[in-house]
Design brief:
CATH class: Alpha Beta
Pfam family, one: DUF179
Number of strands: 10
Strand content: 25-35%
Number of helices: 5
Largest sheet: 10 strands, mixed
Helix content: 10-25%
Family: Belongs to the UPF0301 (AlgH) family.
CATH architecture: 3-Layer(aba) Sandwich
Structural class: alpha+beta
CATH superfamily: VC0467-like
Protein name: UPF0301 protein LJ725_15490
Length: about 200
């Protein structure tokens, strides 16, 4: 199909985990869930970084939405350095609107005020994060960063996406790389930042 990547090339529904050698400080120790990856580029949400001093309840107040006490203190994710004033909701696929992007692995992404209203009144998705901003790559940019070993790829997992212990996610994602390796751990010391290209 024109304009789409082959399934083997897509990273949709997987995590990009910043390698220890990540040169961009905005992404150091970040875990990015990839929502879109095709010939037009890639879009992801950082799932282990929050916007400081901005709980979800404050966003609801600013939007004039009644704040449910159960989520008032929830963090708002810093989804990435692109369009940081725009809110996107990364959520479980049990909720869908016309504008919702369904993602492999039972996940979805919706950018609308309506989903926030539905979340506030209890009719929204079972699990969700509001993120301000997103991570974006132009066509071919992410492929170059992968060749330069800036990112490690880990299979996506809703449990890790929605884990509220944000500080542990990077290590937990790295630990997933170690499954099947001797000792069951990914050894950072053995990871070479060299690209290995001739």
């Amino acid at each position: 199909m024109p304009g789409s990547s082959s399934p083997a090339a897509t990273l949709v529904g997987r995590f990009l985990v910043a390698a220890p050698s990540m040169p961009d400080e905005r992404f150091q120790k970040s875990v990015v869930f990839i929502c879109k990856h095709d010939d037009d580029g890639a879009l992801g949400i950082i799932v282990n970084n929050k916007v400081d001093d901005l709980p979800l309840g404050q966003v609801y107040k600013q939007l004039g939405i009644a704040v449910p006490k159960s989520v008032a203190d929830w963090p708002v994710l810093f989804g990435g350095p692109v369009e940081t004033s725009r809110g996107l909701v990364l959520h479980s696929a049990d909720y869908k609107r016309d504008e919702t992007l369904l993602i492999d692995g039972g996940m979805a992404l919706t950018a609308s005020l309506e989903i926030l209203k539905d979340m506030a009144d209890g009719s929204g998705p079972k699990k969700a994060w509001l993120a301000l901003g997103h991570s974006g790559w132009a066509p071919g940019q992410l492929d170059r960063e992968m060749q330069d070993n800036a990112w490690l790829v880990v299979d996506g997992d809703p449990e890790l996406v929605f884990d509220v212990d944000l500080t542990a996610k990077w290590q937990r994602a790295l630990d997933r790389l170690g499954r099947g390796l001797p000792g069951g751990k990914f050894d950072l010391a053995s990871f070479s930042p060299q690209s290995g290209r001739a």
